[in-house]
Amino acid sequence: MPIVNRFAELADEITAWRRDLHNNPELLYDTVRTSAMVAGKLQEFGVDEVVTGVGKTGVVGVIKGRNGGAGKTIGLRADMDALPIEEETGKPYASQVSGKMHACGHDGHTAMLLGAAKYLAETRNFDGTAIMIFQPAEEGGAGAQAMIDDGLMTRWGIEEVYGMHNYPGLPVGEFAMRPGGIMAAADMYEIVITGRGGHAAKPQETVDPIVIGSSLVLALQTIVSRNVDPMNQAVVSVTQLVAGTAYNIIPERVILRGTVRTLSPEVRDQVEARMQELVPSIAKGFGGSATLDYRRNYPVTVNDAERAGFAAEVAKAVAGEGKVDPDCVPMMAGEDFSFMLEERPGAYIFIGNGASADLHHPRYDFDDAAIPFGCSYWVKLVEKAMPIAG
Question: Is beta strand 58-64 parallel, antiparallel or unpaired with respect to 73-79?
């Protein structure tokens, strides 16, 4: 079954919503205009319930099927926030807000879920309840957890939850997903190394924290190459080395900062434990000391195997055979939809964004040609997960 014909008719309208959102990006929980626009559209569509302020600025829309909503309840989630990036696309609908842009396609995600909500509210060709979840603060603010803490899953009795994200490099009209870990846990750390500073001409009288830091940078790379099973995936990156004030002074202190990405809770625990062992011991070996502040951020985004298989079949019904990869390579970026998947079984899927610039790039733009495919996927997922009885 191809895309739903109604979305070919609605494509220009949904594209206009998307470009309006792109024109007016908002960060983290400050999605005041975006949330108001979403709530207004949902009310205009005639959904059964619209609730704002869930998780600060999140919006929830409730659409009941033909049986009045009895039976199964599933959630569909779109993120709404932008990024603190200066846009360089040159598009006529480019950001009007200096230093902010939709560089991850959340404008497209929001528009596609709104399009699906409009259709579902019109047709109600399902039994059960569909919960439209519009989430703020995905980009580092853990908006998903905030909505959960506000009762998202329990208040509306959500039993399964599904998410979708655009994927540059995957052709428009295609989908990709996998059972198990599809996006990585995204942790951060700070290492403070203390030595004994002094004159650069007298290193023998110092404990050089830069040497300790340099050794630690190299040692941290051995965690992945020598401790993690080669069949598993992990990334340990040092992204900042802060040290010194002058060319002729050995400093007293060095700071290393970076990120750790893992695709299973077990490997996540293993990497953190190994860092806790290496950091103080290597510093001590050079006569200095070091402390590690390891901060866990978003967990691994884990697709339930059964729901992932179901979602892949829904995507095939929209895109056609050969246009859905059911076992794609996972992405090592993080995603706070992981919090929702820790609460309820479900699946997260990638939708093709064509040959665009990469995510988080100042020349990135969501491809509007993907809109009918994304909307159709959402609608077919609801209709197939909650078919009309008889």
Answer: unpaired
CATH number reported for the structural domain that contains residue 125 in this entry: 3.40.630.10
Question: Per the domain annotation, does 47 fall within a domain?
Answer: yes
Q: pTM of the predicted model, to two decimals?
A: 0.93
Kind of pairing, strands 289-298 and 249-250? unpaired
Does residue 1 carry a pLDDT above 60? Answer: no
Phi, psi of 270 (to 5 degrees): -65, -45
- Whole-angstrom Cα distance, residue 293 to residue 280? 12
The pLDDT tens digits of the residues spanning 44-81 come to 999 999 999 999 999 999 999 999 989 999 999 999 99
Residue-number span of the structural domain to which 175 is assigned: 5-183+300-385
Per the CB < 8 A criterion, the answer to whether 58 and 98 are in contact is: no
Any idea how long the chain is?
Answer: 390
Last residue of a domain, one of 298, 320, 353: 298
Number of domains in the chain: 2
267 alpha-carbon distance from chain centroid: 20
Show Cβ contacts of residue 99 under 8 Å, excluding neighbours closer than 6 positions: 84, 85, 86
Q: Cα(267)–Cα(233) distance, rounded to whole angstroms?
A: 8
**Of all residues in the chain, what percent are helix, strand and coil, respectively (each to 5)?**
35, 25, 35
For tokens 């899953």, the residue is 153
Q: Rounded to whole angstroms, how far apart are CA atoms 86 and 170? A: 25
The residue among 133, 175, 177, 172 whose CA lies nearest residue 371 is 172
> Is 390 a domain residue?
no
Confirm whether 232 is domain-assigned. yes
Q: Same domain for 203 and 63?
A: no
SS (H, E, C) 29-67: CCCHHHHHHHHHHHHHHCCCEEEEEECCCEEEEEEECCC
pLDDT (0 to 100) of residue 4:
81
- At 85 the pLDDT is 98
One-letter identity of residue 160:
E
Domain identity same for 116 and 149: yes
Burial of 257 (0-12, 13-18, 19+ CB in 10 A): middle
